[in-house]
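User: For a benchmark we're assembling, each entry needs the component sequences followed by a predicted structure for the full assembly. Here are entry 17's components. Please fill in the structure.
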Amino acid sequence: MLLDESLIFERGSAGRAGWMLPAPPNAVELPPELRREDDLVGLPEVSELEVVRHFVRLSQWNYSAATTLYPLGSCTMKYNPVVHEALVRLPGFSALHPLAPDQLAQGALELLAQLEAALEAMSGLDAVCLQPAAGAHGELLGMLVARAHHRERSDARRRRVLIPSSAHGTNAATSTLAGYEVREVPGDHRGLLTVRAVAEVMDDSVAAVMVTNPNTLGLFEEELEAIAALVHERGGLVYMDGANLNAILGIARPGDMGVDIAHFNLHKTFSTPHGGGGPGAGPVAVRASLAGYLPIPRLVRRGGQLAWSEDAPKSIGRLHAFNGNFGVLVRAVAYILRLGGPGLTEATRLAVLNANYIRARLRGSYHLPYDTPSLHECVFSDRDLQEHGVHTVDVAKRLLDYGFYAPTIYFPLVVKGALMIEPTETETKETLDAFVDALLRIAEEARTQPALVRDAPHQTRVTRLDETRAARRPVLRWRPPARESAEIP
Amino acid sequence: MSGYSPHTPADVDAMLRAIGATSIDDLFAQVPAGLRARATLTLADGLSEPALRQQLEALAARNTGALLPAVFLGAGAYPHWIPAVVDQILQRSEFATAYTPYQPEVSQGTLQAMFEFQTFSALLLGLDVANASMYDGASATAEAVLMARRVLPGRRTVWLSRALHPHYRATVATYVGGLGDLELRELSFAADGRTDLVPLRTAGADALCVVLGYPNVFGVFDDVIGAARLARAAGALTITATAEPLALAYARSPGASGADIAVAEGQSFGLPVSYGGPGVGLFAARETHIRSMPGRIVGETVDTQGRRGYVLTLATREQHIRRERATSNICTNQGLCALAVTVYLSLLGRHGLRRLAEVNAAAAHDVAARLAEAGVVRRFAGPFFNEFVVRSPDAVTRWETLAADGIVVGLPLHRWYPELDDALLVCVTERHRAEDIDRLLETLAPAATRARAVRG
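Assistant: Structure for entry 17:
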């Protein structure tokens, strides 16, 4: 049952209010030039029940990880444990003000210290900052740390960052934001970064190399240790994007690979819910020699108490108003405690098993551009479907009809028409089989009735949406019917 | 225990056979053995759900500051009532466990809610267009400065009010620090707590933007109209940052006051203070600058049958398309928190929101008046909303002792402004009960309480 639902602004009736406090005994007026100009015209006038129905109906238009397999590559859409939602709502966490005296926040500080220690242990690095609100936020932190490191050494020649062509777009955008130029390094025929390719472009102008390991093809960068040695020898740093850490927890540590700076995506590897686009958390781990550059405040132990300290003269400063997405950090701690060391390693092993199972069952029916053994995800392409006029986007849309979300598509860019599949460890063999069967049927449909695939989806609330029209004639908000202009002349 | 993984030994065997491997270890053959030998996790074994609950409940219980009713802290995080409806909607898995809506046909719930969020942001901030959220108010302020840099390339001087929240200022400094081509200049504050705009009169062709808190960190409404007039005369943009957006239900919107870009922290609208996060950044601007905006944007369109629907749009600004030439590196934002704001503002609506703002203003002004009556005067005379600064050297000195006794009387400002060594920033909202307020008065002004008792 999918009921129609207009915008909340199009509902209701003048004078209605969903949630109202009694009027205060005294009214306070602002000076005329400071008074609200429009009497809030345009805000909804609806009842509580209208609001409940509105959002319950909207929720029913969504696929989610709790609805169906969500095989988005590099997104690690594993099960988000329900108990975490109860824990984060404990008043001791949710009602704690960020400027409360440290002595009244020892439980929160202890939780953050435990998370820092766990992430240090998992990464093989020495210091962690929990402030970043997402992976890209962590990348910015990391590259500003790299910049501060070179500046401290008065090394002004370094203006460039090396990035493999298979990298996430955030890596390139982050480098620019940190004041660097980007130079792409191609992978080899196996899909891997080589010492040789890096050596060709590595010189005194390079501040850092940003790598994702395993990379976006799901392949372990087996030359990374040697690449890191080369980069270090020429005075550069190695940054690792931890988007794919779910493939190597307990198997290999960034610090042991020669990585100097790495970020974690707690909303991927550590099961915090993605929320339809956040909130996430992107903690960063660094080597001891870089710890002094981490943002303030830093968590320190003084006597038996934990405290925040802003005494960090080399720090790059702040990236967030307070202590990052604390509620997300609570959920990640709960996940780590629940699984423990052995459970986290087992999760990695089964994530890799699941991805390899899908790869084994699909190869032969879909083109596999890189045959190198892969870990937690696998990347196919639409090469063999094109003769029927069927493309990656069509396969993705048709999967929706079969009740599955689509893989990540057209990424990584090194694969034309990529279908990037990451099942995670929390899926059963039965679900994986059903998903693979759907993809096999779609490959068959592409041959026998390609129009059915090209016009998909057929079973969803709306059919394909006109994205060109949205971009050419942007309508980005609802507007009240006759809004009075309140511009200051 | 393997946590939430469902695999039976028979499943594993069958899957390995299909793969053609003899063990799971085989699947990691490409990872060098030296790395594998060192990577064993030293963490403890996993806990059962009851044991996990006990452990986290014990940690939560040690946050005694969260359980006190008499906490008068604001300064960027504001305690407000959260209607039960908001959290019930947030806990719906259909919203909470969805990814960024890459497949719009099965993500219309998230997309329509984001479109509504953009509308709320634009309406409240008084500007044409808004994005689908930023990390928080501080990083949104930094992104606003970077957006100004794209709109007015070549201009270098950023005028930052010293009365802008110090954490916001620090975040701006960090964000622009890597680029190295902008110069930050501070505008000091005047005796009434408002930003001193006089130096802006000298702003010239190099001026990029002026950034004001609205209200500022002292709770005072800055003169955005005046600042915008001076900025416009210099060809620069005006940016406002609002940490307490409830004030905008009551005060002139930034857009109507002349701001070109307005950002806010949305935590007040339906999210707990949660030790500082997650909150959500609201970000709005004039339509002419839309292609310079950072972040995700949702737009309206139609499907192949002409039905209205929503998609992520204007993606050519973004990192996954434009890579190193993107307007920002932001990818994941604060989607579920933006949903909280959307549900909250829908529920309170036009009348409930205005009433809540009136209740806040009345409560704070009443406390300020009663303190003044007892000789505890406001440090700044400028117009305020639900936060104000008083002189109370004694309370500042005894801040931690008082906290240990169960009342956090506000925030001593000397940590940020050494010259304000006797100043206390006090926030009063609808959450504070009469007895909490009496306790505050008793603590800050024992004489006032006595006088009231005599009168009563």
